[in-house]
Amino acid sequence: MPLNRPLRIGLGIVGALVGLIAVAILSWNLWTIRALNLAKARIAAAGLPTKISDFAKPPVAEAENAAPLIAEIKKITEGKDYDGTEPDTGVRSLLANFKESHAPYKLDDAGIRDLTAILSRPSAREILTLIREAADRPAFDARLDLSLGPKLILEHLAPMRAGVDILRAHIRLASSTGSIDEAFTDLWRLLNLSDFMASEASMMSHLISSSFLHAVIEELAHAVANRAFSERWARRFANRIKGIKLQLRLITTLDVERVGFGAIIFEDMLSGKIDAGEALLGLASDVRQRPRASIYIPQGWVRMEYLTYLNCLQQYRALAASHWARPAEQQRRMRKLTEEALSLRVFAPIILPSLTSIVDRAMNLDLKIAAAVAGLEAYRYRLKHGEYPASLSALVPEFLAVVPRDTFAGADMLYVRKDATFAIYSVGRNGTDDDGKFAPPEHDDLGFFPSLQTPTPAGARR
Q1: CA 240 to CA 254: how far, in whole Å?
Q2: 234 falls in which pLDDT band (50, 70, 90)?
Q3: What are the φ and ψ backbone dihedral angles of 284, each rounded to 5 degrees?
Q4: What residues form DSSP beta bridges with 439?
């Protein structure tokens, strides 16, 4: 029976709509393919890394590699003598309790006895020997397989931190008992360990390296506060830390993040190695429950997320690579970029690390390094002239080429002499002098603060 005219018209309209939708989907898919390929081509044309092999390290001879020694520390930290079976046993818990109960950097007699007892434990002695030997080796290569992407397990991070905990505890003990050269030799080793972590191609290694640098600056401030430095050691540390290229380290880390992590996930989604629909349901459900079903996620959607990821990461990289003369403005632009670019995305915000905070911390640490260099030179000035300089400009040109700039304020860093010591600092993002206090969000001064360190307690050994 022939269809009546209204039905024919209706079917025609439906067919046309289906055709239009099919054409729209095909056009959208073609556009996403082209846009993603163009984004990849721009990255390659800029000469940026595009393959895992671009981050390959030169071969390191086993005898020169610190990584096997860190692996030995891992075995020790898995033992009961290190972790303990009760809250008050084991080196790790004893050290944690010690830190809470002994605030002064230079210890009194009771503190020296307690720390000596902790560091005399067999596991602590073994770790100290291994971490020192590791730090004295010329290179570190954990043989990371970056092609594993998110499956990569960085087994060296926890034992490295355990070794640094022991090393810092011994630095405190050595400086409190008058073994100054021994303390500074170990502090120099801590800088070596920071460099080792910075040489590893992963975001976590970069963050661990930065935490070690923070620790070094804190130890240097304590040493200046207690006037423990010789001129030779002050000069050596000043020259060493001012040569740290923190910005370059950060940029390399962002490239590694793109090639060795995010790109791998998206490429696996597009190739079918990862089911995008299952992954989406997994993100929406309890992380302990594996999704029992999947939904269809168009590849065009995955490509759009991938494109957002690449564009966002490249814009972050450009901001990180620009001159850090206006960090507050850079931070504002990064936050705006995050809000605008990721607002309608699902996978990209999760796969991207917390780049704003990572870049923030790098810029802040860069200011702390500049302040620490100036602080060490101020200490050398005191050794020569008998007192700290009246202003930072007095250090130029004999000790400093220029007065360090507070890029948040667009002016020279603040310099305050207090009780026969001093502080050098930036006003931080809020642009306000908080008298050297760092307690975000209200106070965010950052720099080098010997004046805020706990003075040597009465009765401490010299």
Answers
A1: 24
A2: very high
A3: -85, -15
A4: 443
**369, 244 Cβ separation under 8 angstroms:** yes
| 285 contacts: CB under 8 Å, gap ≥ 6 | 291
Cα(444)–Cα(431) distance, integer angstroms? 9
Q: Please tell me whether the peptide bond between 455 and the residue prior to it is cis, using omega within 30 degrees of 0.
A: no
pLDDT attached to residue 11: 63
Q: How confident is the model at residue 9, as a pLDDT?
A: 66
Give CA–CA dist 310/313, Å, rounded: 5
Count of other CB atoms within 10 angstroms of residue 351: 21
Dist CA 204 CA 157 (whole Å): 8
Q: Is the pLDDT of residue 363 over 60?
A: yes
Instruction: Express each pLDDT in 179-219 by its tens digit.
Output: 999 999 999 999 999 999 999 888 889 999 999 999 999 99
Query: How many angstroms separate the CA atoms of 381 and 234, rounded?
Result: 11
Q: How far is CA 328 from CA 105, 210, 279, 359, 425, in A?
A: 33, 20, 36, 11, 16
3-state secondary structure of 195: helix
Structural tokens at position 361: 């911390």
pLDDT in tens, 144-155: 888 888 788 889
Please, how many CA atoms are within 13 Å of residue 405, restricted to the half-sphere of its CB?
Answer: 13
Mean residue pLDDT across the chain: 85
Task: State the Rg of the chain over Cα.
Answer: 28
Q: Does residue 47 come out as left (phi exceeding 0), alpha (psi in the -120 to 50 range) or beta?
A: left
Residue 292 is given by DSSP the state S
**Phi, psi of 138, deg, nearest 5:** -80, -10
Mind listing the pLDDT tens digit for each residue in 414-447? 999 877 889 999 998 888 888 877 766 677 889 9
d(CA 309, CA 347): 9
The pair phi, psi for residue 418, each rounded to 5°, is -140, 125
Percent of the chain with pLDDT strictly greater than 90 = 44
* SS3 state at 439: strand
Tokens of 128: 């100290």
Q: Which helix (H) or strand (E) covers residue 323, if one does?
A: none
Per the DSSP assignment, residues forming a β-bridge with 418 are 421
Phi, psi of 444 (to 5 degrees): -145, 35
